[in-house]
Specification:
This protein has about 260 residues and is α/β, with parallel strands linked by helices. Helices cover about 55% and strands about 10% of the residues. The protein has a six-stranded parallel beta sheet, with helices on both faces.
């Protein structure tokens, strides 16, 4: 027996599961979907080219609460797709890449081998596997404030040309983004944590706003499951807008049908 108010949640869950399976299957069969573009992702190519011209590195960080388990795992996985894209663009342009991890309560300690493999894949895609160096990925610290200090110290020494900070961010983001701004880096910020978007949008020229992080990761990776999730997300947005408009119209004329359905 369903608890009152959970019927709609069950319907959405079923629709989502079926949609992901369907669109993922169509993608595996060779179906190509027209995906939206993201200025923040397109800017990475510009950032890598600028870094190569200036002889300064590009910095990438997946966040100070980047875990492979728990609620932050989807953001971390999306960030890995963007890291691979960044590594490929750096290899193609001849720019040096520095990817850091670390942060709150040991965050990032389990990311080192994954990030190294992702960066290696990016260099291989660019046809420059011989230029890959494991030291591109650096673990700064398992403590948040030490991670902040180590990262801004890196910025000061290296005079980075670009700072790409997309993923699961918490308390470290204001200091990291501010110092990236101070050294004149072009910055791309993105996270699905809405409370973090304010400071990032102030100090970063390009932003991935909440769910755009997942969408961008899926668009880059081309993985069938991620494409399926992205397509379902787009469909559910249109359904939600339609229900909102119809519900508002019905409430205006005194018919609480949508309201009653959502309360089931």
């Amino acid at each position: 027996m369903l608890v009152k108010g959970t019927a709609v949640d069950l319907v959405i869950l079923v629709i989502t599961a079926i949609g992901i399976a369907y669109f993922g299957w169509k993608t595996k069969k060779g179906k190509e979907y027209r995906l939206r573009t993201f200025p923040a992702i397109e800017a990475i190519d510009e950032i890598c080219g600028r870094a190569a011209e200036m002889g300064r590195p590009v910095h990438f960080a997946p966040g100070d609460v980047a875990y492979l388990t728990g609620i932050n795992a989807p953001m971390t996985i999306a960030a890995m797709s963007i890291l691979r894209y960044t590594a490929r663009k750096c290899a193609e342009k001849g720019a040096r890449l520095i990817a850091t991890c670390g942060g709150y309560q040991g965050a990032g300690s389990d990311l080192i081998p994954l990030m190294q493999d992702v960066v290696r894949s990016g260099y291989m895609e660019a046809g420059k596997a011989e230029e890959y160096d494991p030291s591109i990925v650096r673990f700064i610290s398992p403590e948040q404030q030490a991670y902040v200090a180590g990262t801004i110290g890196l910025f000061a020494r290296e005079k980075i040309a670009g700072n790409i900070m997309v993923g699961a961010w918490a308390g470290a983001h204001p200091a990291v983004a501010e110092y990236g701004f101070r050294v004149g880096a072009i910055q791309v910020g993105g996270t699905a944590r809405g409370m973090i978007m304010g400071p990032l949008s102030v100090m970063c020229q390009y932003i991935l706003i909440t769910d755009e992080l997942y969408a961008a990761g899926a668009a880059i990776s081309k993985e069938p499951e991620q494409i399926g999730s992205l397509m379902v997300e787009e469909v559910l947005k249109y359904i939600a807008v339609g229900i909102t408009l119809v519900g508002a119209l019905l409430i205006t004329v005194g018919i609480p049908l949508i309201k009653d359905l959502l309360a089931m």
